Amino acid sequence: MKMENKKIAIVADRLSGIEEYYFSQKLRQIDEMNKAGKQVINLGIGSPDLPPHPDVIKTLQQEAQKPNQHGYQNYKGSPVLRNAISKWYKKWYKVELNPESEILPLIGSKEGIMHVCMTYINPGDIVLIPNPGYPTYKSAAKIAGANVHVYTLKKENHWFPDFEELEKLDLKKVKLMFVNYPEMPTGQLPSKEMFLELIAFAKKHAILICHDNPYSFILNDKPMSLLGIEGAKDVVIELNSFSKSHNMAGWRIGMLCGAKERIEEVLRFKSNMDSGMFLPLQLAAAKALELDEEWYDSVNSVYKERRKKVFELLHLLNCSFDENQAGLFVWAEIPSEYKNGYELSDKVLSGANVFITPGGIFGNAGDKYLRVSLCATEEKISEAINRIKSAK
Ligand SMILES: Cc1ncc(COP(=O)(O)O)c(C=O)c1O
Question: With b meaning 16 or more CB within 10 Å and e meaning fewer, what string describes 135-152?
């Protein structure tokens, strides 16, 4: 018997206005092109192509071989991993974190963004998100029922939040603000002065700051944590990740750090969503955090060489850019003859079979930009340069 007037699987209202992730769509198009023999060079995505340190893989292998490592794990994460995160934060960021209460391992920082939104947002609460910025902040906040208010970052203001502009808003309903330095996609490094201003702003208006910090070790000699600013724990939680700094994007492992109360609040949500991660993976991640300067230097020396090639590619496209950027990408302004980055990206994709991300996917403040990934070998980038030259 068929029910009258009732349809199966009507998608929930919370997904209205939420589209499939841009890259998930674009990768399908690239797949189709590859099936047609085009061998597209993908300079779009920031998924490190280099492997983790061999000791990390060895730890995973050795631990996975033990018969007693396969059960459900603690929701709070393994104490070994939490201790390693605490030591890592102390060593590199000079931040004290209690491994028992101020650290929560995550299945990647992307899931943390969703957990934070689900933990704090009531329908109608306002969330401040950066433009240009990582698209997940907006979608996660919307799914959680927030009114999203986008704050524009401008080149002339070092891609920092414009606090004067922010002060003009009605900030009473603003509950949460996402911030991310080194910024993706602009590659902008933070400054201590800006961090101090941010904390003062958050305290003045009782806004929780979620600082997303996955890029601080990439092409940057001075990793900074927002939690390193005095008094930050009152208003800041920080996400961090193994994806970029340790070449472990596919492992899905990250962390949330902050005051004990915040960690407990987020755990109230998260412990209802998933269970603790596979223990060998957590132990291997702990190993990764013990790596010394040589590891970060070796990763960065590869990115530095690739970046030179990417600069060459961008010159060929007549783009302009700041050479002092951190993170896995180069952010570059397109020449004025193009309407926007989509137009230039499409031209390069169809003419040269090279995919470069249009800056507009990070918000309209990125419309006149492109973002080129450093997660491709020098040979691939050289090949992309040759293809672009021949397509001209
Ligand atoms: C700014 C930013 N935050 C978070 C993430 C997600 O990282 P993870 O792999 O830890 O989920 C990314 C990934 O590209 C990112 O660019």
Answer: bbbbbbbbbbbbebbbbe
Q: CA gyration radius for the chain?
A: 22
Distance from Cα 90 to the centre of ligand 1, integer Å? 22
Nearest Cα residue to 185 out of 307, 299, 330: 330
Out of 9-18, 131-140, 152-161, pick the least confident.
9-18
CA distance linking residue 104 with residue 258, whole number of Å: 9
**H or E element: which one contains 385?**
helix 378-391
Please report which helix (H) or strand (E) contains residue 280, including its range. helix 279-289
| Alpha carbon of 244 to ligand 1 centroid (Å) | 8
Cβ-based neighbours of 185, under 8 Å, separated by 6 or more: 132, 133, 329, 331, 357, 359, 362, 366, 369, 371
The ligand 1 atom nearest the CA atom of 184: 1
User: Taking a C-beta distance cutoff of 8 angstroms, is the pair 50, 247 a contact?
Assistant: yes
| Residue 21, pLDDT score | 72
Q: Which atom of ligand 1 is nearest to the CA of 243?
A: 9
The best mutation among 23, 184, 357 to test binding of ligand 1, ranked by most ligand atoms within 8 Å of the C-beta, falls on 184
Positive/negative CA dihedral, 229, 162, 115, 73: negative
Contact residues for 29 (Cβ-Cβ < 8 A; gap 6+): none
pLDDT in tens, 268-319: 999 999 999 999 999 999 999 999 999 999 999 999 999 999 999 999 999 9
Of 45, 115, 241, best ligand 1 pocket probe by most atoms within 8 Å of the beta carbon = 241
Containing 138, the helix (H) or strand (E) segment is helix 135-143
Q: Which of 136, 248, 274, 325 to mutate to test the pocket of ligand 1 (most atoms within 8 A of CB)?
A: 136
pTM of the model: 0.96
